[in-house]
């Protein structure tokens, strides 16, 4: 459809605030019972890592299930050792006063302690000598000291981890009841789409959103499937939507690059079901569509990758955790100082991707390249900050909260170079990462002067600079003096 | 084998310090070329999450690959808009001065900016009016603004994440070359072992270590397989080892509960290959055996679960990352204050599992139930602290570094109740976790007085106490007065 043909159409979406959009949609999904699905399955604990327990898990047997010897040696009654000394040893007779035990053997009835074989002296074929008294329950694993059946092992809604498998196994469980992951179906739309691996012509776009989003929802515990792309044709989209909704729990229509395709999605969703929200005051991601068809959540997701990511995190992730009946694990957050001023439009909540480095005891956050269509800056970012709708941006030096998408330990090993960029830095970055130290080098391109300023303010570890002083014909010296008057500078040739 | 038959055997292992053991083993593996394996495979980016890139990944095409319109509207030369105002609009003619474009369309040759359709006025069939000047490249995605081929996307050795798939797709990659994960084979040993799901008789033990360890090594990027358990018989172990070493890259013999089985492992390993280290001064896990057979790493791992976990983390994990040629991602670490005194033997590095809660601005760490055989405390722990070999333990109130096995965000939502335990607390904990708040309640059983003391020192949020004052016949009042003299107390009936 040419935009000219559609010239009179109202292109303005009524963007509503994020919290209102989330609440409205959540209430709608509750109203239509979309999250009530309660399917569970019983699976082997071998396959349970990452799955969500559908009910509390209790121990079947105690661990240890009988009192056992923790050592190879002899079982005795501790009273029979009392008073033994180096010079006045006590002699014990096999059977009545001691019995031989291996590690893991039950401690025989009537005995309560174990003496290690290396602490014994043999006296005769069936007699031993001990020269030290023994504490009650020495070298003994008391029944249920680890797990006392039916002790609670996992709560309902727990995401099972590798570290949980030991106690499940020890408590006699071979399988566990888990929630069945929701099936998320993605429908990419857009006549301009070509598959990954194909070379796009002018005006064509590689369809990688479905791969990217599938991987994301699988991280969150869902199952993903992808339909063949649908051209920009409302009838075809309607057919695809009706066909796909049958087999999935959540349907996501990924918009093509054309604004028109979003309008198709909205009108097709409205025809087949309900559109609850069209347009949210967020950046990126504002043209998102939230609705339902046949009692199932349907999301119209913007096609720009960064918009798709933001809307997936804000709207799709909570639905997946709702199906899984599990609390979402919130990533680590780091208080940081903004290393650069960032302007942001009033009235929109902005989700800004940043890199973070620890400089002089503070974490410094710098924005990555902004834009809804960016992908490399997603990959390079360390996390996201939220700029509230009622803010015009963030001042340099103000405190922000970064929600990390990396381990804090990686951020802690980061060197931040600010200033003029050079390809040599990329090569250095690569060498450093691969070195045993695992140091990451990130660079913030703010020009030569910006780099010196960043260094002087404690916003960078290193500054890249090549400033020519036209009076002297020398590089950098006068600029360093001017911008960093209080620093001692050493010069290396 | 009965311990009596073996009475004269030397049971003392020569435990060597951890760092020396790790270095010795690493050097041995380098000497025999055990980590030189360089197999790679090419896989679809769809399947690449969690895999390790075997070489640097560069962009095949730029993104966008041509300069495109970011909006539906018209492409113009920005110069032709200069001077336009509300009162003195500029009229442009289609073809020479503007062309209609859709979002994603290439910006036609000779044009550089786009005006959104909603900012236009139509004047005639092929004329528009504009009333504002336009900035160069307005609403245009410049060629390569996201990715400039052949820009570096991933470094060699990078662990590929879902967030990386967008830039891989945008840069025209459909597949990626990755290292083939090492195959780790586990051989459980011990005549006393029964399978999970079976009810163990007295003296029998459920074999769950192989399941637990398989899940762990898969978390670390390896492939796991498990052989049927081998009885305590050196000949059978020798056969199993020779048979298994063929198909795997790393072999792990899991000791049964009997100390004897460790000796079989050591002697069989020495016979078939080399034993480099037998016994390391760590707790738990000191009887670990590090060696090689047929040029491949072989580890004899203690059978107690907590020992197995510690030795897997210390010795197996680095080998796996060595094969993967990737830096291990170190988990998050938290500086905490020890809430309880912990004694630890001199001469051994102890790895102590702890729970952590934020109390009054400090993180407070309390030990979980110690012991090599414990499993539930592994699952319940939030992380591990290392007590150095030259330390007799940790004083209450001293600073420790906790290596977390949970997200910090989970720890941040933790309420710590200290003192006298009650089953009602378990029920409350369960309710809280499942509530939307996601608050975790952990309890540290230190008795009623211990709880009041912990509260007074800022080591707990809540204290559980039921102390009877025998003089007055009242509970708690006098104890609270005595142990918390400086706190205002309010009483609820």
Describe the fold and architecture.
The structure is a homodimer of 493-residue chains. With 493 residues, chain A is an alpha/beta fold. Chain A has 4 domains: 18-37 and 181-324, Molybdenum Cofactor Biosythetic Enzyme, Chain A, CATH 3.40.980; 40-63 and 145-179, Molybdopterin biosynthesis moea protein, domain 2 (Alpha-Beta Complex); 68-141, Molybdopterin biosynthesis moeA protein, domain 3, CATH 2.170.190.11; 345-483, MoeA, C-terminal, domain IV (Beta-clip, Beta Barrel), CATH 2.40.340.10. In chain A, 24% of the residues lie in helices and 27% in strands. Chain A is built from 11 helices and 31 strands. In chain A, strands 16-13-17-21-20-18 form a 6-stranded mixed beta sheet, sandwiched between helices. In chain A, β24 and β25 (362-367) form a beta hairpin. In chain A, α4 packs across α5. The longest helix of chain A is centred in the middle third of the chain and has 20 residues, at 305-324. The first copy, chain A, is flat and about 95 Å long. Residues 1-12 of chain A have low confidence and may be disordered. At the A-B interface, β11, α2, α3, α7 and α8 of A face β11, α2, α3, α7 and α8 of B.
Summarize the structure.
Chain A has 493 residues and is an alpha/beta fold. In chain A, 24% of the residues lie in helices and 27% in strands. In chain A, the strands form ten sheets. Chain A has a six-stranded mixed beta sheet with strand order 16-13-17-21-20-18, sandwiched between helices. A five-stranded mixed β-barrel of chain A has the order 22-25-24-26-28. A three-stranded antiparallel beta sheet of chain A has the order 6-4-7, with no helix packed on it.
